Every structure is written in structure tokens, then in C-alpha cells.
Amino acid sequence: MNSSVKIAELKTKDEMLSQLPLILQLTDGLTKKKYSEMLDTMLANGYRQVGAFVGKKCVGLSGFWICAKIYSDKYVELDNVIIDKNHRSKKIGKQLCDWVLSEAKRLGCKTAMLDAYVENKNAHRFYFREGFIIRGFHFLKSI
Fold this sequence. Notes:
Low-confidence stretches: none
Helix content: 25-40%
Radius of gyration: 15 Å
Number of strands: 5
CATH class: Alpha Beta
Strand content: 25-35%
CATH superfamily: Gcn5-related N-acetyltransferase (GNAT)
CATH architecture: 3-Layer(aba) Sandwich
Distance between the termini: 43 Å
Number of helices: 5
Mean pLDDT: 94
Order of helices and strands: EHHHEEEHEH
Oligomer: single chain
Shape: globular
């Protein structure tokens, strides 16, 4: 583990909004206005966010939700796990995932789920190392 990294939950919308530059490393073109609107909807539906900090700088981020589905029971869904491009391969992603999984277990979750972009091979390797498996396809249709 990287002991210089501190994991902390972001508690306010403003704290989350301030991480837009990091989010843009994974999601090009997202504006602050659009991110703010999305957060309003997401927060109203139980969205939470945790960051990895070196000093006061957030170098890693993961959103997450606690939900339930018939096939999985209560679960945590990790959303937009991002590590700053200058801080990758330092076990920060593992620290973030471990924190989220520990919180999910505390809340009674039985499984963890996430989506990773098909082209993001580095993320795939990371999630396989962390014990995730590919269980199915995630379908998407614009409406």
C-alpha cells in the first residue's frame, strides 16, 4: 500500500465538482454544468464518491452506489474509477477499491459490479487482478 495516500469520502457536491479535471481524464468533453446536473440526479439516488489524496491533491476517484438486483442481491457498483495519469501503477486503484468494497461489506452487500470501457485494456487487467470476472454484456442504446 502507498502510505502517503489517504482515502476519504467526498461528502458534498462541491467537493465532487472540484474533481472535474480528474474525471475528464476518463470522460472527454464533460462540462462543469453538465457534471453538476448529473450529480444532482445521481446524489438524489444514493450516489457516493471516494477519493485518494496525496496531500490536498485528489489523484484517484471512484463513485459508487449501493443497489439490489434479483440476480445479485444487494451489491455495490463502482462507477468511474479514475487514477490520475501521473499516479498510475502505485496501488492507488487497489486502495480505492479496497475502501469501497469494505464499505459495501459493512452495508451488507453480497457482490460488487462495475463497467469498464471495452477499449480500456489496462483497467481490464487491473480488475482481473482484483478478482472481478466478466459475467455478461452491458448493453447500451441511445434514446
